[in-house]
Amino acid sequence: MEHIISPRTGVAFRLNAGQRLRVIDPQGEQVSDMLAFNANDTDEVISSGRSLDYASKLFLTTGDPLYSNRSNVMLRILEDTVGRHDFLLTPCSKDTFRIIYGDEHPHHGCFGNLSHALQSYGIKPDQIPVAFNIFMNVQIDGETGELRVDPPLSKAGDHILFEAEMDLIVALTACSALQSNNYAFKPIHYVVETVGVPVG
């Protein structure tokens, strides 16, 4: 069953070990922030620092694992039709829009959506780390280290497929930042697949 995340919203759900998560960009150029927590101990959480350190690269794609803060593999990327995602920048928030964009009445952003979606699992805002920003296209100047957010490279129907290596609580958004999504807010679709069971 294909689930729809409406523009500028988020969801959270269980993903059991061995299940697969397919995240789809149905219209193109739309980012999805993804978090993962150990379902049996939510102090264990996806880690940008460890994942990038162990991979020795900034851009993770097919075959790469996503590690936890305890150096355990949480998810592995099985398929990736885009090949460019970000694992450096924090989820956008009221403070992002206030500090970077100067908004007087800022939207609560992906951080607010993630916080709300994870509340029913007992996960507090201060437990939210850097997300794996699916389809986000961050360019890095190798000389100065300057970061630039360009439009996502994803086209309509592009996807990334993960397999869970432990029981997880996963949170996903349809990102709320204008610049990240080429100045248009669009939905994100996702499917949870059990190996050997046809997708309904």
Protein described:
The longest helix is centred in the middle third of the chain and has 10 residues, at 109-118. The chain has a 6-stranded antiparallel beta sheet with strand order 1-13-3-11-7-6. It is mainly β. The protein is globular, with a radius of gyration of 16 Å. It is built from 3 helices and 13 strands. A hairpin with a 2-residue loop joins strand 4 (32-38) and strand 5. The chain has one domain (2-194).
Major sheet size, sense and barrel closure: 6 strands, antiparallel
How large is the share of residues in beta strands? 35-45%
The number of domains is 1
Q: Helix fraction?
A: 10-25%
Number of helices: 3
Give the SSE order as H and E letters: EEEEEHEEHHEEEEEE
Global mean pLDDT: 95
What is the total tally of β strands? 13
Structural class: mainly beta
Radius of gyration from CA coordinates = 16 Å
Kindly, what is the distance between the CA atoms of the first and last residues, rounded to a whole number of angstroms? 5 Å
- Write out the strand line-up for the largest beta sheet, numbering strands in chain order: 1-13-3-11-7-6
Low-confidence stretches: none
Which geometry do the CA atoms define?
A: globular
